[in-house]
Amino acid sequence: MSKKAVITGVGTYVPEYILTNDELSTMVDTSDEWIMTRIGIKERHILKEKGLGTSDMAVKAVNELLKKTNTKPEEIEFLVCATVTPDMQFPATANIICDKVGIKEALSYDVNAACSSFIYALDLGSKYIESGKYKKIIVVGADKMSAIVDYTDRSVAPIFGDGAGAVLLEATEEGSGIIDSILRTDGAGRHHLHQKAGGSVKPASHETIDAREHFVYQEGQTVFKWAVSKMADVSVEMMKKHKITAESLDWLVPHQANNRIIEATAKRMGIRKDQVMINIQKYGNTTSATIPLCLGDYEDKLKKGDNVILAAFGGGFTWGSIYIKWGYNK
Ligand code: UT7
User: How far is the CA of 221 from the centre of ligand 1 (A)?
Assistant: First the structure.
């Protein structure tokens, strides 16, 4: 049997502070009823403390992962961080996480594919394991979305939250692990979801700050339509390719952007709601952390040999699906 990368543990972290819909309703013109009906989010966690960033949440998730899997920092040979909210433009947040955790002289860098970052990074990590060159890899997805959300813009403010989740990848020849990935992009979609300033085209200036261009810009309805069709299409393609039927799929792990997107995706795939991991009500859209946070919350229910499909859609546009045969019982 060929060598595959298998997830052997999950660690997660969300900050303590909970921003409820009721509190949000005192900040912008919105309501718990609108947010629950249109998005399905009840509350989200926010990293409030000044001076803390994405790496600080990632470090907590990675430390929990190391403890749970009985792994020493020095055993990690590659750490890849999926994020759109790096601590700073450079160096990579992955470098900072390694330093804070005590992972010395390993390979580490960031991957940014917006809300699809985690599945892109997981695919990358799996290839390094399959190559045989690396034995233990951490893939961490972490985002402090509150750093780039305009809390005076009601079309964006309710959606996002902060959090981090990490998985350990090791090699297996037992037939389980990351079996396949289908990852796609369409750069023409960049106009509908992006951050206008702060990059090389429009560096930060008084004008960009006055124009509030350092926040998430999203054309919600366009993104919604693309998200449903692309996430569902790529997941159905994966099911067909591997002869997975609606009954033989154990879990869909969708990016948590909007409960209506998740439900529409599941419907198009012909699967039941109880086959879908959903925790958007607790955390909102944590961008790179949604999928590992789901794996963490549902770890008790996952069984060795389960057919699991991860699916995501995000800015870029980026989207994709990963097929996993789950590798352990908790
Ligand atoms: O993770 C990356 C990918 N991102 C996504 O997948 C997000 C995709 N998009 C969405 O999830 C949804 O489009 C949103 C949640 C962003 C918006 O929901 P929507 O159902 O598409 O609402 P809409 O933008 O069509 O707005 C409908 C109405 C408008 O009022 P009028 O013009 O009908 O009077 C908005 O002004 O709802 C209004 N509205 C709100 N009302 C109360 C928009 N935001 C709010 C709000 N509270 N927060």
Answer: 7
Predicted confidence (pLDDT) per residue in 101-145, tens digit? 999 999 999 999 999 999 999 999 999 999 999 999 999 999 999
- Helix (H), strand (E) counts: the chain: 10, 13
User: Closest residue (by CA) to atom 15 of ligand 1?
Assistant: 39
From CA 268, how far away is CA 38, in angstroms rounded?
19
Tell me: pLDDT of 2 over 90: no
- Is the CB of residue 274 less than 8 Å from the CB of residue 267? no
pTM above 0.90, yes or no: yes
For the chain, give the number of residues.
330
Structural domain harbouring 80 = 4-177
- Here the CATH number for the domain that contains residue 190 is 3.40.47.10
Ligand 1 centroid–CA 60 distance in Å is: 33
Contact at 8 Å (CB) between 132 and 255? no
